[in-house]
Batch of 2 targets.
Target 1
Amino acid sequence: MQTVVLAAGEGTRMRPLTDRRPKPTVPVADRSLVEHVVDTATAAGASRIVVVVGYAGDAVRDALADRDAVEFVTQERQRGTADAVRAARAALDDAPFAVLNGDVLYDRASLSRLYDAGPGVGVARVEDPEHYGVLETDGDGRVRGVAEKPDDPASDLVNAGAYVFPAAARAWLDVTESDRGEYELTDVLARACESGEMRAVTVDRWLDVGRPWELLAANEWKLGDLERRIDGEVHPDAALRGPVVVETGASVDAGVVIEGPALVRSGASVGPNAYVRGATLVGEGASVGHAVEVKNSVLMAGATVGHLSYVGDSILGRDVNFGAGTTVANLRHDDESVRVRVKGDPTSTGRRKFGVVCGDDVKTGIETALNAGVVLGTGARTGPGETVRRDRGR
Ligand code: TTP
């Protein structure tokens, strides 16, 4: 099945993590987000994959450079998802084609079912359909129509953002501009539903990675898929429990306890006397030092948490440096889910535990206390002994 992967977007809701990289290249366990999408599609039966790049397109091309099935087209301006598929139109054969977002993870079995079903759309049951594109199906499992974020949803079946369109849909991509000024793929879907050909194919597991806490969830998922492998240097007095991967060129020193799933990437170091637990990614060249606890977090390449610190349910960008004694709060005393500002709006993460988001090159002074849900922008600084309750440097 020829497959179009949309990876031209900017990822503004993921800022500051996308200040210096396009969202498709953010790290998810052992590869970038878009590599997971391409690899799952390939395993599910994609024959050719046309990746649409745009914003910071070279970084996306580099991330996928060694994938043989991949070719690239450029969307000059990010004018919407239908416009993005239109950029790929000339590269498509006269045959059905799949469309996947470059920032949504699916399980392989579900994608295989979608590919095998012929024209169809991936659907999922959710508890809050009013926040999604709600699908109307008939008794034969065909999708009859789609309503975007309706006040009164007709069902709890929603559009999971994976499609196989009939060959004729190449001519349906020229939709009119929507109210929000974009050319939207849901309008192409609506036209395809009218044709009566689109089947509803249930998707077992999917994750739309749009906001920072969803990047954490993506890492929880993909780290959980790793099998134990110890290629790096591990001191005999370290205890590695469960699915832990220590890559070649990484080191784990004496007194360290790592409870998997966890991935310590090449060039990274952990310990002595550190405790790493939950689903944690210690990126290339990152460092977790003496008496540091890291729980359920993503440390991007070169991030350093050197001494006497606690990092929980957090994302630290590239080359972040936490001063000694930096402590992250990840739980509200009122037990409400932690809120994070996304494009200025306080937004519930839906997580009881969430720590902080640090853009690349953030540096904290010693004994900094960071409140749950705080975002530190790229290059932000804190002084010694500061308690940070509000976002900084965004
Ligand atoms: P979105 O999630 O709507 O956009 P985005 O990824 O840029 O993120 P944000 O809203 O935070 O800025 O896009 C869905 C998918 O479609 C995503 O994989 C990016 C892709 N896309 C394009 O390829 N071209 C486009 O013009 C748009 C709007 C999105």
Target 2
Amino acid sequence: TVIDAAGQVLLPGFVDMHTHLREPGREDTETIESGSAAAALGGYTAVFAMANTSPVADSVVITDHVWRRGQEVGLVDVHPVGAVTVGLEGKQLAEMATMAAGVGRVKMFSDDGHCVHDPLLMRRALEYSSALGVLIAQHAEEPRLTVGAVAHEGPTAARLGLGGWPRSAEESIVARDAILARDAGARVHICHASTAGTVELLKWAKGQGISITAEVTPHHLLLDDSRLETYDGVNRVNPPLRERSDVEALRKALSDGTVDCVGTDHAPHADQDKCCEFSQARPGMLGLETALAIVAQTMVEPGLLDWRGVAKVMSERPAEIVGLPDQGRPIAVGEPANLTLVDPAREWTVRGPELASVANNTPFEAMTFGAKVTATLLRGRPTVLGGQVQR
Ligand code: NCD
Ligand code: ZN
Ligand code: ZN
Ligand code: ZN
């Protein structure tokens, strides 16, 4: 195969620490196969499939299935994320050691969609994780602080009377788990950081030498709460779209390394659960196929990152944080390559039905972007060529 890369940017294959693939349980919205195609088209060579499937990925049976199915599809390495606790309302720690030793080699455990309320349980999880050499990912939500909260967040949400999810619900957990990680000597990763206050807490914690890392989603780099004006459920997401000043703080934090990397939080939902009134909608947005375009627009265009920096936040840092030695780095001569080719001057318009995901509702519908992934190589094999999936 000859790839004409004239005028294009060659990057290490992207690594997404935060992808929801919905298998098992909601294959009507995404499968490991459809999500793998979306990931490859987005330039990814490794994704981490979050644990809030149905049933929850709290046992080696499920985490091994996820890994094996991903290898069978062969478009991207699908690394299973294990649940920290058993079940959604977990009161006890899951068998992390068993999942870590399985075929799927679980490297990260998350409480995504089922936040660990109990600080003692989180302390034990962090202590255990540090002994096992795995990472705990914190979904960064204290759901008890959304109860009775008057504003979802931001002036538009307040005016429209959208309740719940104030910034305190995020920041209090970030502060709590930074301190717990410090005392446990563990590493903690903050999922979808969304507020200026979280950025300040990350600065403080890193300054103390705490092993804390964080990701930001493409949608929190681009969209703000003014999008809620229409009451359209497509804009509903956890954590919510926040204020323009938060967006600015997140962009700056990603450019100076306070926020380490981009995580898509790709979260497909059925049309009937999104194309509805805001308060009826499920939270979550598609993210894999639009991530690079959004990072180019929000970070490269305004000069906050150069392409070297994009390689860092989309590939090197996530690979390093989660421990994937074969991803996110330059390759030695003769070594099979994980690579992503980007056309930095390719205009394209997002059309939901053209996306590879099963669900195809997106808040980016009809938006035009200026950069696009044109080819992806997984261990030397093209998974995408000329913007088309190579099965
Ligand atoms: C996620 C989902 O749908 O699985 N939704 C979301 O809004 N981010 C769960 C989550 O991460 O909260
Ligand atoms: Zn949590
Ligand atoms: Zn989450
Ligand atoms: Zn998520």
